[in-house]
Amino acid sequence: MSLAGKTAVITGSNSGIGLGVAIELARSGADVVLNSFTDRDEDHAIAAKIAEDHGVNARYIAADMSSATDCRALIEKAGRCDILVNNAGIQHVEAIDKFPIEKWDAIIAINLSSVFHTTAAALPTMREAGWGRVVNIASAHGLTASPFKGAYVAAKHGVVGFTKTTALETAEEPITCNAICPGYVLTPLIEAQIPDQMAAHNMDRDTVVREVMLERQPSREFATVEQLGGTAVFLCSDAAAQITGTTISVDGGWTAL
């Protein structure tokens, strides 16, 4: 599934799922543009390592996905965007009646509105190139719900709906738009939570992972960032040219319940 000659822009990609997706796209030959809101030496070093490891062009562009202006400027600064992966996201857990307004606004802006702004900016470049792929990283929470995650669930449901609209508006063009819906993924952020969960429940690592953290994931295994990256590569390939406007769940059976 060679993506040589394509340029991929991946939002929120200096760690976790976004970085995993970027690496797999680079492994398949795509040039990549990494992004987050910071602008540190280590951010640019990550891009340099990807370039060295995979023989592609890789850059890092700082942009705040809570800002409509920054979202659109990211695509402009990238110069080319054959593949857009909307991955940036944040989370806050609290009851609806106590949910801080500023947290709601930030989650909707970063998790949902940024998808609109980057897609709106990228579609003209894809049309000019005569080819394009939009891959939105939604969530199992884009298809189902959990208590105390109102903003996140609303945003991810919105991403799934926006994915369908984008697909319909590009259906007669060589452009596709799909959403990947991960369950629990083993990222550094999740890994860091395991010791606290072990202490809180007085369980060993394997038990707390299976019985607490992966309670809703029937496989009782985390998805990996490499698996999500591989799914993104498939959606960008010619094999997926007629797959558009749909969701692919990488959730160990969560949404089958």
TrEMBL record:
Group of enzyme by EC: oxidoreductase
Q: Which Gene3D superfamilies match?
A: NAD(P)-binding Rossmann-like Domain (3.40.50.720)
Record lineage: Bacteria, Pseudomonadati, Pseudomonadota, Alphaproteobacteria, Rhodobacterales
Alphabetical list of InterPro entries matching this protein? 3-OHbutyrate_DH (IPR011294), NAD(P)-bd_dom_sf (IPR036291), Sc_DH/Rdtase_CS (IPR020904), SDR (IPR050259), SDR_fam (IPR002347)
For this protein, the record's NCBIfam families field holds: PHB_DH, PRK12429.1
Q: Offer one example of a GO biological process linked to this entry.
A: monocarboxylic acid metabolic process
Q: What is its EC number?
A: 1.1.1.30
> What are the protein's GO molecular function terms?
3-hydroxybutyrate dehydrogenase activity
Record key words, sorted? Oxidoreductase
Provide the family line: Belongs to the short-chain dehydrogenases/reductases (SDR) family.
Domain of life from the UniProt record: Bacteria
Q: Which organism is it from?
A: Halocynthiibacter halioticoli
Task: Look up the coiled coil feature and give its residue ranges.
Answer: none
Report the Pfam families cross-referenced here. adh_short
Name the record gives this protein: 3-hydroxybutyrate dehydrogenase
